[in-house]
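INTERNAL AUDIT FORM
Audit reference: QA-55
Scope: verify that the stored structure record matches its stored sequence.
Auditor: D.O.
Record contents follow.
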Amino acid sequence: MSLSRRRGGRDILTGEMTATPPPDAPPAAARPGTRARILLGVAVALQLLVLYAPRLPDVGPTDVPGLDKLGHAVVFAAVTLTGLRAGLRPGLVIGFGLAHAVVSEVLQHAVLPGRSGDPFDVLADVVGVALGLILARRIART
């Protein structure tokens, strides 16, 4: 009788993975989670640029009412959507998004020259978090 220390691909004593992926398994870069994490990184980088750049470059018409609020909602929705699609816990993603909405405006007001905090930006950020959550749930259903 042979006693195996492996169960479910793990050594039951050390907890280390002992199994190798099957030959037909996709490479790590092609796994669904990898792409989602890359998109999350891009979304976070874009959000940080939009929120913390000392002065945003003028692109297109800047006198359109509400365009700034739309930008806030879009970047927060993108981070929420991609964070949830990357498999992060919803409470963590939503909590971070809501906290960052407030903190980013305080930092803009207190630290960044030429920028000011705006309570309506916080509201747009919260709407973006909600939209990202709604989109993630709809995508998960399909």
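Auditor finding: record pair retrieved intact. The longest strand covers residues 6-7.
Action required: none
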